[in-house]
Amino acid sequence: MYNELVFSTALIFDNTTLDGALGRHGAGKYFIAPYQRGYKWKSDKDGAVTQLMTDLLAAFNKDSKELYLNYITTQVNKFEGETVLELIDGQQRLTTLTLLYAVIAGMTGNEEINAASNKLSYQIRKKVSQFFSTYIYDPQQVPELFSQSWETFVETHPYDNEQDIYFLFHAVRHIFDRLSELGDDLTILKFADYIGEHVKIILNNIEGNINCEKIFSNLNNNKVELTDVELIKGLLLTRSSRAVTGSRQLGYKQVLEIRALLGRQWDEIAAWTAEPDISALYFSGETPPIEQLLRFLAVVSGYQPEKDKERKYALFNFFQNAINDDAGQAAGLFNELKIIKQILNNWYGHPAVYNTVGFLFHARDSGYILTDLKGLLKSPIKTVEQKIRRLAFAIIPENIAELDYQYDKAKIHRVLLSLSVFHNKDKVRFDFTAYNAGSWSLEHIFPRSPDVLPDRLEQKDIELINQLMTVKFDDLKRIKEKIPNLKMKEFHTIKRKLSRSSCELVPEEKMLIYRLIKTDKLNKMGNMALLTGGDNSSNSNGMFSKKRHNIIARISAGSFVPKHTYDIFSKLISAKMTTDNISWTENDIDNHQIWMVEKVEIIRKDLAI
C-alpha cells in the first residue's frame, strides 16, 4: 500500500511537525541502506547536479509558482532503535539538496537556514558519514571546500580519497559557483526561502512489510513511476486532513486516525469504480476507472483535458493548482468526489437511466462519454432521465431501411443495440457487463463475402443462395453479361452443385456464387445481428443453423445473449418469417427488416416523450 504526499523541500526535511515528511511518520532522519549505490551525480557540463541547479535558478529568476522535482520512495523502518525513513529511491536527489542547503548556510553564515542538517544517515559508509559530519553539517567547515581543488583537498585529507566523496566534493564546488552568480547573501537567502517553499517533492511512502532492497531493484530496473491517481490521492488526503483538523490542537495519533478515515473513504470510492457492473457502465478503455472518475471531477471543476494531452501529470497538476495549498479547497474537492460517486450510483440504480446511459456510452460512434453528462449532476433524477433519453433518440437513425453495411456500420450498430436495450420500455435492465465481456459486434446473419462462406453448404443454405440469385442458370446470356470471363466448365460445376441437397465449395466457387447473388440485400438491416466473434467464425464460418447452435449453447450455459439476437435465432421476430429454425431465407431478411422499421419507430417515439 502506498501513501503519497507532496512536500516543499523545507518540509521534506522537517522532523518536528506533522506537516513535515519526517515528522508525519515519526522519523528523525532519512536512512540510506548498504544496498544503495554511492553518490554518483556529476557536476560537469551535462551532469545531474548542473541540471538541477540550472532548473532551480531558472525557476527562482522567473519567480515560478512551483517547481516539481522527481519523487522519492521511502519506507518507515528502525535503525539503532530510532525510527527512520529508509530511502529506497531518490537518495541522489535528496543528498544533492542536502549539499545545497549546507552550501547556503556556509556562504551566508546562517545556520538556521540549513533545513537538511543531520537528516541523512549512512549505514556502512563510515568515511562518507564522517565527511558529512565534518563538513556538510558544519557551516563553519563547509567553506573549506569552496575554493580548493580536489587534488589539494586529498593531499591534505588522504583519508577522504574515496569515489563517493569525490562526487560530493565536486557537487559542493559547483553549487558554490552557481550560487555565487546571485551576487550577495541577501539574494542567496531569498533563493533559500524560494526553494524551501516553492520547490516540491512527492514522497511515496510504502507501507507494510515489503522488502526494501527488492523494491529498490524493481524501481531501478523497471523505472516504476507514480501515476496521476497516486499523486492526486496523496494531495487530496493530505490537504483535506488539514481542513478536518483545522486549528484544533490534536495529537499525532488523532491526526493519523483522521487521515486513516479519509483514506478508507478514498478506498471505498476506488473499489466502487472497479466493481464490474459500475466499470462496464461508466468507464471504458484501459485507463483505470478511478482515474476516469477523477478526470470527471476535474472537468466538473473546470479542467480542459484537450489542452493538456501531451503534458506529463497534467491531471495532478490541475488539482495541485486548484488547491493551491488551500485545505478548504482540497476538502471541497474530496467532498465533491464523494457526491459524484453517490449521484452516479443513484443513476446506476434507476433502470431507465441505467439503460439509457449505457446505450449512450456503448452505441458505436455515439460520441458520448461520462464527462458529457457533467451538466446533469445536480438535476433531479426525472430531469436526468428526460434529457438523456432525448440524447438517445437523437443518435438512433430514422429511415433505417435505407441503411447499408458498407456505409452505415455505426448507425446499424446503434439500431441493433437499441432493439435489445429498449425492447420493453426500460423495465428490464440490459446487462452491459456481460455485453462488454462477450465482445458483441455487428455481423451478417448470411455471410456477406466469399471468404466467410462455409466450405460446405447444407440444403437450406443452397435454397437461400438460389433465392438470392439475380439470374437463373437457364439464362446463360444474362450470366455471360454479368460475368464475361465465365468458363463453361466452372458454370456447369456450380450449377450442378447448387442443385444438390448439400455440397462442398472451393474458394473460386464461392467467388462465383457472390458474382451471381443479390449481395446488396445482404448489407441491409434485415440481414444484421449482434454476434460475438466466436459465434460468427466458429464451425467453419457456419451459416444460420451453425450460428443458432452457438447461441443456444450460450443460453444453455447461462451466458448472456442480447434480446434481439435471441429473437432472431429463435424466429420470434415476425409471424411472416419461415417457421423452421435451421434456415435463413430471403423472406426472413425482408420480414426482419419490416419488423425492425416498425419497432425502431416505436422506440424513438417513446424516447422522445
Key attributes of the depicted protein:
3 domains; 7-stranded mixed sheet; two-stranded antiparallel sheet
Mean pLDDT: 86
Structural class: alpha/beta
Task: Report the sheet-strand fraction.
Answer: 5-15%
**What's the total count of β strands?**
11
Low confidence ranges: none
Described by strand count, sense and barrel closure, the largest sheet is:
7 strands, mixed
Shape: elongated
Query: How much helical structure, as a percent, in the residues?
Result: 55-70%
Output the radius of gyration. Answer: 35 Å
> What is the number of helices?
29
Number of domains: 3
Report how far the terminal alpha carbons are from each other.
50 Å
Structure description:
It is a single chain. By secondary structure, this protein is an alpha/beta fold. The chain has three domains: 2-226, no CATH class; 229-349; 409-469 and 517-608, no CATH class. 56% of the residues lie in helices and 9% in strands. It is built from 29 helices and eleven strands. Strands 1, 2, 3, 4, 5, 6 and 7 form a seven-stranded mixed beta sheet that branches. The longest helix is centred in the middle third of the chain and has 23 residues, at 252-274. The protein starts with a strand and ends with a helix.
